[in-house]
Amino acid sequence: MNSVHHSSAATASTCRPPIDKPPAVRAQANLTDYRRACTEFDWGTAAGELATLPGGAVNIAHEAVDRHLDTPRAAAPALHWLRATGGRVTLTYADLAASSNRFAGVLDTLGVSRGTRVCTLLGRNPELYIAALGTWKAGCIVSPLFSAFGPEPVRQRMALADAEVLVTTRAHYRRKVAPIRRELPGLRHVLITDAEELGADLDGVVDLHAAMAAASPDYAIVRTDPQDAALLHFTSGTTGTPKGAVHVHNAVLAHRVTARYALDLRGGDVFWCTADPGWVTGMSYGVIAPLSLGATLISDEAEFDTGRWYDILTAEQVTVWYTAPTALRMLMRHGQDLPPGTDLSRLRFIASVGEPLNPEVVVWGQRAFGRPVHDNWWQTETGAIMIANLAAEQVRPGSMGRPLPGVHATILRRGPDGPTMVDGDIVHADIDEIGELALHTGWPSMFREYWQQPQRYEKAFAGPWYLSGDLARRDADGYYWFVGRADDVIKSAGHLVGPFEVESALMAHPAVAEAGVIGVPDPLAGQLVKAFVLLRPDYTSTEALRDELIAFGRRALGAVAAKDIEFVDSLPHTRSGKVMRRLLRARELGLPEGDISTLEALP
Ligand code: ATP
Ligand code: MG
Predict the structure, then answer these.
(1) What is the whole-number distance in angstroms between the Cα of residue 469 and the centre of ligand 2?
(2) Which domains does the chain have, with CATH numbers?
(3) What is the pTM for the complete model shown?
């Protein structure tokens, strides 16, 4: 075992007094006795809340939409779609049901059979929601692609998925698919959402709206088995080539339950999940969970913009907001005073996912929004939130929180090649010892395979434990603290350094908007800690500031602080908002950049 360093930053954040929710906006406690809930919860009993189809069939689209049709909710808004150019379009639950029925009918007419992969390459617009729901109704598998992908990432994923159907727009088709269509022999049908003015160059595609108009608004949803595949999600590609994680229809049970516990979500909420449905967050919590609970979704077609975001929170009277650390850091760059006219009085609950949430951001959120940001942790592979600062409990800034009822997590002791085994038994880490975060198999939204990569799938398990690839520690109260991805952790002079703690320590300085930390080879220490720093708008990069930041980090962290700092104009992020440390490392060391298909275009 490596000598493990518990830095003062981690300890400092543990000791920071928990933030109490102000009484006026206190989230309604939906889980008042955590320990009891954990003991009593079982997924079998929880399954009783699914609406199910005759014969015990479970279909995500039925759970999300059609289950509401016999209730007054049928006429309630399911989706407010905000156009990038202004204006909004509303679809009720009944509208979504009928449109997705038509979409499913189109797939049938085309002769698409059950289990077929249907890819979407669409921005955030209603067709994306309709296509996903209709695909499930027809018993097919949805594989959402992020609309900003270029031709090569699209080709790679569609080829791996062996997709037979693609739903996309004219512009995406022309630019990204037409040039590579010959390389995708399995792609039989391309459905175009804005085909009204098809050009001669668009032969061999289907006008989706015309086909839907000709289809029936009624459809007998395919009675999918709870264990039938429903989703093929590609991971963010933060650590390498994205993997295709397969999820089943029964995952909807986990989406519902976890959204209630971790997001405090209920019927009637106005819910804004800012993640794109091209990623797992935007599908599990941007589509499935909120609809199945009867909430109203906000879907914004535009990209991130500080002013626009505060306007949306205000104008739409958002009650629950689920976003990501990068977005919060960008809002924080603009200070604590919200733009005039911002009204967050209806906002009851804020949560964050995707990357470690620096304690500094939680503290800022408390001041700026008047309520804390609840961090939670999960992955494409887990399909749903696993660990969270729960709605009914105090937030611990810097911690991911505690496992949800029904989730059994642990920290496994790690040797150089994975979990440490003694006499064939796996060894759990001690309290506060850094190890690999693992989950006991058996929750409904666990991925069932890495598509066409069985060996990679097998390697993700040790006995009954799913190995997350993330390093973390658990404190004496059962809270989990993220240290870093196994690939990102730095070994410096015998210390194990998590980039997150070094980044968070730097972010405590008023000049720092965002930081990305890597290890660079060093003959003496093994690795030295280097930080790439993005400054807030009103600071300039000077030698003096550099020295000040190095000293500032050292005061907080001691020996493991960053020894070198480089100022940058932007940090490389994945499209799902994660700092791509492997790219910083590759560039620093002059190595090949590897798979950068998910890299966000620089501003
Ligand atoms: P790839 O597996 O292709 O490298 P990825 O792991 O970034 O990509 P996702 O499944 O989108 O793909 O992201 C899950 C990962 O994001 C987690 O394993 C973890 O490293 C990070 N993460 C998610 N939420 C949190 C959180 N609250 N705190 C810290 N890290 C988080
Ligand atoms: Mg991953």
Answers:
(1) 7
(2) 8-46+236-485 (3.40.50.12780), 60-222 (3.40.50.12780), 490-600 (3.30.300.30)
(3) 0.91
